[in-house]
Amino acid sequence: MFEVRPARDQDEYGRALYGVAQYFGAAPNEEQLERFSKLLPLERMHAAFEGGEIVGGAGSFPFDLSVPGGTLPCAGVTVVGVYPTHRRRGALRALMDAQLRDLHERGEPIAALWASEETIYGRFGYGLAAWAGQVRIKREWNAYARPLERRGRARFVTPEEARTLFPPVWEAALRERPGLFRRTPAWWELRRLRLPDEEKANPKRFVVLELDGSVLAYAIYRQFPNFEDGVSNARLEVLEAIGATPQATAEIWRFLLDIDWYATLEASLLPVDHPLFLLLATPRRMKFRVGDSLWVRLVDVGAALSGRQYASDGSIVIDVHDAVCPWNEGRWKLDGGKASRTDDDAELALGVDALGSAYLGAVSFSELWNAGRVEELAEGAIRRADALFCWRPLPWCPEIF
Ligand SMILES: CC(C)(COP(=O)(O)OP(=O)(O)OC[C@H]1O[C@@H](n2cnc3c(N)ncnc32)[C@H](O)[C@@H]1OP(=O)(O)O)[C@@H](O)C(=O)NCCC(=O)NCCS
Question: What's the pTM value of the predicted model, to 2 decimals?
Answer without folding.
Answer: 0.97
